[in-house]
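Duplicate of #3305? Posting structure anyway:
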């Protein structure tokens, strides 16, 4: 006797599977509530309080604090540090990503590990290392003093510390992308007679431009907001070696609340702009 077979409806099999993978509504809404509450309490509320305190005594007092000589000096030093460190780290990041993803050489794994070193070392420790190297009692201190070269408690020390803290950002954005891309397009361009530089500018850069801009953006944000390492090597000399984050601390310790929050509002504004640009670049990169 032949068995009677009934056709199986695939929809009946898929529906229970989808239902099994879905969380109950109360779980989803609970997680969403926790996430939104956390963001509101620890991110939005502090940013709102910074802006409120900055303008608590009026716009005139706010602009008065921003026009102080020490504040302007701190802003200029912060911009100068970013203008020097970001391009240097961009060049290093592109070169490191190119070397790691396109060549095989001894020490490749060591180079990859060293790129991540600033992520694992406390910024305060990294600043202390520069003091031990270039300070008056450091390894090179005597030679530097003999040649009247000042690094620690001066602008060069701030730039070196910021350079160390920020150099992984561009490389870490490019390495995974270039590994995923492979080198087929570069090889095709070279086989058609293009030079190495032409291949780099015409093929590689267009393919990595959004990730490169994303890394530059993160590097710039960290360079402007760095506190720990810069605090160790700067010496806190007002009007000379105080960057904007350090000047905020100085004003707050001096009970100049309006001045402290005025400087903090600039950093908060930079953070918001960075977040907006970061989201836009992420969208561009995902679309690509």
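Output from current build:
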């Amino acid at each position: 006797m032949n068995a009677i077979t009934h056709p199986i409806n695939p929809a009946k099999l898929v529906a229970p599977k989808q239902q099994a993978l879905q969380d109950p509504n109360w779980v989803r809404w609970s997680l969403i509530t926790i996430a939104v509450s956390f963001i509101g309490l620890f991110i939005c509320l502090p940013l709102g309080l910074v802006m409120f305190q900055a303008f608590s005594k009026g716009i005139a007092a706010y602009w008065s604090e921003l026009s102080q000589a020490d504040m302007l000096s701190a802003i200029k030093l912060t911009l100068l540090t970013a203008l020097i460190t970001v391009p240097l780290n961009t060049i290093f990041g592109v070169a490191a990503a190119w070397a790691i993803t396109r060549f095989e050489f001894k020490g490749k794994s060591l180079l990859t590990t060293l790129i991540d070193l600033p992520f694992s070392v406390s910024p305060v420790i990294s600043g202390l290392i520069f003091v031990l190297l270039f300070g008056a009692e450091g390894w090179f201190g005597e030679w530097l003093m003999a040649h009247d070269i000042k690094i620690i408690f001066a602008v060069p020390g701030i730039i070196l510390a910021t350079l160390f803290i920020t150099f992984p950002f561009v490389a870490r954005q490019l390495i995974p992308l270039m590994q995923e891309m492979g080198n087929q397009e570069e090889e095709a361009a070279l086989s058609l007679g293009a030079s190495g530089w032409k291949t780099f500018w015409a093929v590689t850069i267009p393919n990595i431009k959004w990730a490169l801009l994303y890394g530059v953006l993160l590097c710039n944000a960290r360079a402007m907001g760095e506190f720990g390492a810069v605090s160790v090597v700067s010496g806190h000399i007002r009007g000379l070696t105080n960057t904007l984050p350090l000047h905020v601390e100085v004003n707050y310790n001096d009970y100049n609340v309006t001045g402290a929050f005025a400087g903090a509002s600039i950093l908060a504004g930079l953070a918001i702009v960075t977040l907006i640009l970061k989201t836009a670049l992420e969208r561009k990169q995902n679309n690509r």
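Confirmed duplicate; merging threads. The first helix runs from residue 10 to 21. The mean pLDDT is 86.
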